[in-house]
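QA checklist item 7 of 12: single-chain prediction sanity check.
[x] sequence parsed
[x] length recorded as 286
[x] structure emitted
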Amino acid sequence: MRLRLNAARASDSIGRTVDKRIRMRKQVSAVDIVGLAAVATILSFMQAPALAQTPAAHKLADGKPDFNGIWEALNTAAWDIQDHVGQLGIPPGLGVVEGNEIPYQPWALAKKKENFANRKTADLTEANCYLPGVPRITYMPYPFQIAQTAKAIAFSYEFDHALRIIHMEGQHPDPNSFLDTWMGDARGHWEGDTMVVDSRNFNDQTWFDKAGNFHSEALHVVERYSLTDADHMNYEVTIDDPKVFTKAWKMSMPLYRRMDKNAKLLEYECVFYLQEERYKNAPFKK
């Protein structure tokens, strides 16, 4: 009898323990479900304002997108427009060339390698503060400002006080009567909400980057600026030069509006700094 009673008591005790554990598990599961639901609710509230903080692109009175403001590229294309590893003074970066390949003619590829080997003196923008050309001026590590009107759009660059006036009316002048220039002759038009800038009449003295990628005086550049929202734009550029490349090729990258308080272009006096370095006791320092 005692054995049976002890067995019955033990069985009751085990049953109560199992029931208690099951109830605890149900309670824990319920708490977990409530907790997860609370976390999901909090996250949904956190995400909603972030989406709302991206304003749509503004439009001007004439219905065109508003590009006015200060913009800057945030990449390493100024050092090399193709994929590259880091080196002393060169940050690593992903390329901006579509497919990461530039279709050089065989002689031009050899020239590009020669340029790279002699880049410290052969790159006139770096060595002598000459104007960098287009599209290089866009992705140098300096901001630029756009001032927009219906008939013309002005691009002012912090580097070297460079200025481009994009005429939104008229055609390119006869190349035989127009001198080749460092920044080319630019004409613009609209394709929907995209600003298209067609530039030609370049000289052959500028590069696309510090890595020696180059062109001839036959360079033809077509840039496409498209706002993705009020503070970001997509920049796409098509390069064509039958003297250097086997076919046209493209680069693309995002550009960012500078949101700093009181943002403005500052003075980057490249020529003055270069003169200070080369001529230590020059009278222009006074």
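[x] summary fact logged: Residues 14 and 181 are 94 Å apart (CA to CA).
[ ] second reviewer sign-off
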